[in-house]
Every structure is written in structure tokens, then in C-alpha cells.
């Protein structure tokens, strides 16, 4: 397959390109030459199409891996003799890294093999055929194929994608949004996502139980009420002639509870910890688990969403599949009441998940950390004794309070009553 076009051009020139140009070797060579000129590089940097020099300084090779990122055998959850040890391993990995890999998770090898095979076969098809199911927001097609030119323009991402909503059922796209080829594509995706959803739900329950110091079953059930949002995304990262100048996916955090990634053996997924970047080693049969920003809000910063990125290379193409669990659109995203008291005020304002997700989407992958900060409470309340000043705003069973602009201190239910948060 030909290289995707190296787009070291101005924004206007980029918008003039269409997907038919991708794979044109002659144009690619011309653009690769153009990027060698200082003016072309600066123009691209100004348009945020290339990786800034400050971020390039943190790049590590796609094959440089960290052996300290935990790989956990979660079959121990089914063994009374190993259950406690396994739970501790999951909780510690989440708290210390925000990422871990799980093996012996109960998903048959054949399901994972079929998943990666149909994804590879799809991205190997001619561009013209993939374009038949391309996303088209103007015409209401919100699911399907996302071509390289579109991703590079919007996110500075050196990749192609295909994505679908699998839950809730009323948001699942019609049959004509799915590819006719390869055979069995939809079945393989749905089988994997259905199988792994229960694994993700169990991991979420364990993490909530640890943070809330009570059974996480009820809280997990509230979040996963059958209307939760589940999105599937497959990404294809072609080889790049100058991989140090672009990213497969720029650094960001996911607006999810938890995210699961199946990656091939190429390498390129990297995570940030304490100011350093580490490569996540491809592990046969493993699924990578990442903590998202909704879980960070829910646990009031006890658990942190992990910042991650994908680097590309000039030697090997890379594929990965991402899914996860998110609350339903109308769920109020806020610190859990069990974690709030006089010494531990809430760190975030409440909002509906659909607003939270839109804020993250509008900020874009380049600013996902800034999107989370939009809900962070800047001035913490040192003590809740002030609540006696506002008895009409207080409900004794809900000790979670937030400042509002007129100086009052409101609980979550008051926010809802006053229309600040929709019920």
C-alpha cells in the first residue's frame, strides 16, 4: 500500500485535497520534498499539523517498551485462593499507572483473531470502496469510515479509522453504514464487544468497590443501566516517511469510564507517568485497559485518567481496536457522594455525560486535558459548616456541595432544581 500523503501544506491547500489523492506516490514524493523547506515546516506547525518541537523531545521509539506496566492474569478473580491477590493487583495498577493489561480474561482466542482479521481486511480494501461508508455529518451519516485526510486535518493524526456505536440500541447505525466486505465484519466486531463488555463491567465494579469502600455493584449498575454508550473504533496507522514529525494519535485522555484496546504486535501505544513516556508492549492475547476521565471525576481524583498517544514509524503498519464503557447520556457525572465530607470537598462540578462528552469532543483530542479542567472547581470549600446559612438548598441525604456564581453553596439536587443541571 502506498504511503498516505505527507501534508506539509497550508490549511487551505489541505482542505483542497480529497481522499482520492491518498496513495498517489508522485504527489507524496513532492510533498515529502516540500517538508524539507523551513517555510513549509513552519506553515504546518502554525496549522498544528505537525508535532511541536517540545513534544518531539519526548518521543521514544515505537519498539521501546516498559516492562513495569502491569500484566494481570484476571482468571484469579474466579479462584477463591487468588481472588484477593488479583483484586489488589488490578487496584494497584489502576492507582499507580492508570493502565494495565489483562490476560486469561475469558475471551476465546478465535474471537480476537477474527476481530483483527476483519479489521485488517477492511483497511486493505481500495480507498474507493471504503469511501462508500464514509462518515458524513452534513448528511446525517454519523458512523462509518473516517479517511486519512479528514483525521489529519482535524486531529493531526496519521491514521484512518472506522467507528460505530454498539449501545444503546436506538443509536446503532442502519445496515448500510456497515461495510459489505469483508464478510463477517459486523458479526466479528459485535461478538468481541459483547464478550468483553462483561469483563470491563467487572473491572469497573472492582475499582469502584476499592474507592468507595463499599460494594461497587450498585454504583456500577447505576452507570451501566442498559442505556450506557459503547463505541467501537478500529484504527490503521500506515508507515510514515518522517515519523518524528507527526503522531498516529496525539496525547489525550479518553472521556470514558474505562477503555479497552486490542493492539497488533507493531508497538506504538505510549502512556505518560510522572512526566515520562513509556511504551506499552504488545502482549499475545492481552487486552489493554485504560482509565478515562469520567472515572477520574467519579472518584474525585482518587484514580486518574491516563494520558496516552500513538507514535508511527517508517517500517511497519499498525492496527488497533478500541472499545469501552461510558455512562448513559443523561447520567450526572460528578464525584461520588460516598467520597465527599468536610475534609474531602468535591473537585468537579456536576454535568450530564452528554455535555461532558460534547465538551471533550469540541476541545478535540489536542485539548482533552483542558476539557476536563473546565469542570474542575478552582476554589475548594474548606468546611461544610457554611451549609447552615442555606437551609433551603440542603438535603441531608446528599452532602455534595458546589459553589455557584452568586456566592451560594448548592448541593447536586439544587443544581437540578434550578436548571443548572438538567434532571
Describe the structure.
The protein has helices at residues 11-16, 25-34, 38-46, 53-56, 83-96, 109-123, 127-130, 148-155, 185-212, 217-223, 293-298, 353-363, 368-373, 412-417, and strands spanning 71-73, 99-103, 144-146, 160-167, 230-237, 249-252, 258-263, 269-273, 276-279, 287-291, 308-310, 318-325, 332-333, 351-352, 401-403, 409-411. It is of the alpha+beta class and 423 residues long. It has three domains: 1-49, no CATH class; 51-328, Jelly Rolls (Sandwich), CATH 2.60.120; 332-423, no CATH class. It has an eight-stranded mixed sheet with strand order 1-2-10-7-12-5-4-3. Helix 5 (83-96) packs across helix 9 (185-212) and helix 6 (109-123) crosses helix 9. The longest helix is centred in the middle third of the chain and has 28 residues, at 185-212. Pfam families: 2OG-FeII_Oxy (PF03171), DIOX_N (PF14226). Keywords: Iron, Metal-binding, Oxidoreductase. GO terms for molecular function: metal ion binding; oxidoreductase activity. Residues 225-327 form the Fe2OG dioxygenase domain.
CATH class wording of the largest domain: Mainly Beta
Query: What's the alpha carbon Rg, rounded to whole Å?
Result: 23 Å
Structural class: alpha+beta
Q: Would you identify the CATH H-level superfamily of the largest domain?
A: B-lactam Antibiotic, Isopenicillin N Synthase, Chain
Q: Which architecture name of the largest domain does CATH use? A: Sandwich
Q: Identify low-pLDDT runs.
A: 1-42, 44-48, 381-412, 418-423
The amount of helix comes to 25-40%
Number of DSSP strand runs: 16
Tell me, briefly, the overall form: globular
- The percent range for strand residues is 15-25%
Instruction: Give the H and E element order.
Output: HHHHEHEHHEHEHHEEEEEEHEEEEHHEEH
The overall pLDDT average reads 78
- Alpha-carbon distance between the two ends: 51 Å
Question: How are the strands ordered across the major sheet?
Answer: 1-2-10-7-12-5-4-3
Number of domains: 3
Q: How many H/I helical runs?
A: 14
- Largest sheet geometry: 8 strands, mixed
Q: Could you tell me the CATH topology label of the largest domain.
A: Jelly Rolls
Pfam family, one: DIOX_N
Domain Fe2OG dioxygenase: 225-327
Keywords: Iron, Metal-binding, Oxidoreductase
Family: Belongs to the iron/ascorbate-dependent oxidoreductase family.
Amino acid at each position: 500500500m502506498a504511503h498516505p500523503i505527507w501534508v506539509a501544506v497550508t490549511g487551505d491547500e489541505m482542505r483542497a485535497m480529497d481522499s482520492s489523492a491518498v496513495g498517489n506516490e508522485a504527489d507524496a514524493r513532492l510533498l515529502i520534498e516540500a517538508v524539507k523547506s523551513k517555510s513549509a515546516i513552519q506553515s504546518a506547525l502554525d496549522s498544528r499539523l505537525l508535532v511541536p518541537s517540545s513534544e518531539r523531545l519526548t518521543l521514544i521509539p515505537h519498539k521501546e517498551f516498559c516492562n513495569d506496566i502491569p500484566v494481570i492474569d484476571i482468571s484469579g478473580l474466579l479462584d477463591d485462593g487468588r481472588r484477593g491477590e488479583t483484586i489488589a493487583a488490578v487496584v494497584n495498577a489502576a492507582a499507580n499507572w492508570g493502565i494495565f493489561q489483562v490476560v486469561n480474561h475469558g475471551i476465546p482466542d478465535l474471537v480476537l483473531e477474527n476481530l483483527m482479521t476483519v479489521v485488517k481486511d477492511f483497511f486493505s480494501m481500495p480507498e474507493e470502496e471504503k469511501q462508500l461508508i464514509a462518515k458524513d455529518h452534513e448528511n446525517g451519516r454519523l458512523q462509518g469510515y473516517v479517511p486519512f485526510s479528514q483525521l489529519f486535518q482535524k486531529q493531526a493524526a496519521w491514521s484512518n479509522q472506522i467507528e460505530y456505536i454498539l449501545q444503546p440500541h436506538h443509536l446503532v447505525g442502519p445496515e448500510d453504514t456497515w461495510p459489505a466486505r469483508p464478510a463477517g465484519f459486523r458479526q466479528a466486531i459485535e461478538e468481541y464487544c459483547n464478550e468483553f463488555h462483561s469483563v470491563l463491567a467487572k473491572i469497573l465494579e472492582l475499582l469502584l468497590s476499592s474507592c468507595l469502600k463499599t460494594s461497587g455493584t450498585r454504583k456500577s449498575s447505576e452507570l451501566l443501566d442498559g442505556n450506557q454508550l459503547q463505541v467501537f473504533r478500529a484504527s490503521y496507522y500506515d508507515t510514515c516517511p518522517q515519523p518524528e514529525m507527526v503522531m498516529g494519535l496525539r496525547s489525550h485522555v479518553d472521556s470514558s469510564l474505562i477503555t479497552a484496546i486490542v493492539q497488533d504486535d507493531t508497538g506504538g501505544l505510549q502512556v505518560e507517568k510522572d512526566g515520562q513516556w513509556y511504551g506499552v508492549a504488545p502482549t499475545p492475547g492481552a487486552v489493554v485497559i485504560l482509565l478515562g476521565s469520567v472515572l477520574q471525576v467519579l472518584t474525585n481524583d482518587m484514580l486518574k485518567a491516563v494520558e496516552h498517544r500513538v507514535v508511527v514509524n517508517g517500517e511497519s503498519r499498525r492496527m488497533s481496536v478500541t472499545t469501552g464503557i461510558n455512562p448513559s447520556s443523561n447520567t450526572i457525572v460528578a464525584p461520588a457522594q460516598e467520597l465527599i465530607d468536610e475534609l474531602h470537598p468535591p473537585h468537579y462540578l456536576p454535568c450530564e455525560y452528554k455535555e461532558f462528552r460534547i465538551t471533550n469532543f469540541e476541545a478535540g483530542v489536542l485539548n482533552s486535558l483542558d476539557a476536563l479542567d473546565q469542570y474542575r472547581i478552582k476554589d475548594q470549600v474548606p468546611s461544610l459548616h457554611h451549609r447552615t446559612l442555606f437551609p433551603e438548598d440542603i438535603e441531608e441525604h446528599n452532602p455534595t456541595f458546589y459553589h455557584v456564581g452568586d456566592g451560594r453553596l448548592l448541593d447536586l439536587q439544587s443544581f437540578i432544581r434550578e436548571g443548572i443541571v438538567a434532571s
